[in-house]
Amino acid sequence: MKLFKSLFHVSLFCNDVKKSIEFYEKLGFEVLFYLQEKEGDEPWDYYIKVAHGQYIELQPVKGDNPHPHPDTAAYYDNQTAWHFALETEDMAQMIQVLNERGIEVVKSPEPDAERVYSIDDIFLSGDGCYVCWIVDPDGTPIELMEQVGETKQRMYDPA
């Protein structure tokens, strides 16, 4: 029995919610709605639509978040989630558009990673996907992937 339909959302803390929203809007996503304790309060949670039924939840660290949250969005020793991945169907065009929008595309999530200016700058990973990376304003690495041919994902999870 399959218990889950899809990845529903990834929740990220952010230091500057306006910068984070602007970044994700440059990726082509939209703020779907936000949550606040009562009308007039600053929102404590923003739902960003990636695709139908898939979201990124942004929670500012400064403000009245009713849930426990850190003082700054930073990596801690006990933090286990370190990135999420977005799939594209046209890596070459995606790289071009992100560069035009001022989003730095890189070969890896390492701080000194080489820039990516075209599909010729990236590699095909062991699972059969083209891979490159971007980093959001709070340092969250985002893996960008395109499945090429018979990937391991397609082999082990056919449509």
Quick one: biggest sheet?
4 strands, mixed
* Annotation field: number of helices: 3
What is the number of strand segments? Answer: 8
Residue share in β-strands: 25-35%
Q: Indicate the radius of gyration in whole angstroms.
A: 17 Å
Instruction: Using the alpha-carbon principal axes, give the shape.
Output: globular
| SSE sequence, one letter per element | EHEEEEHEEEH
Category by helix and strand content: alpha/beta
- Level of helix content? 10-25%
Strand order of the largest sheet: 1-4-3-2
Oligomerization:
single chain
State the end-to-end distance. Answer: 17 Å
- Provide the residue-averaged pLDDT: 85
Structure notes:
The chain is α/β, with parallel strands linked by helices and about 160 residues long. The chain has 3 helices and 8 strands. The strands form 2 sheets. Strands 1-4-3-2 form a 4-stranded mixed β-sheet, with helices on one face. A hairpin with a 5-residue loop joins strand 7 (about 130-135) and strand 8 (about 140-145). The radius of gyration is 17 Å and the shape is globular. This is VOC family protein. Pfam families: Glyoxalase. InterPro entries: Glyas_Bleomycin-R_OHBP_Dase (IPR029068), Glyas_Fos-R_dOase_dom (IPR004360), VOC_core (IPR037523).
Descriptive tags:
single chain, alpha/beta, globular, Glyas_Bleomycin-R_OHBP_Dase, four-stranded mixed sheet, VOC family protein, 16% helix, 29% strand, VOC_core, 159 residues, Glyas_Fos-R_dOase_dom
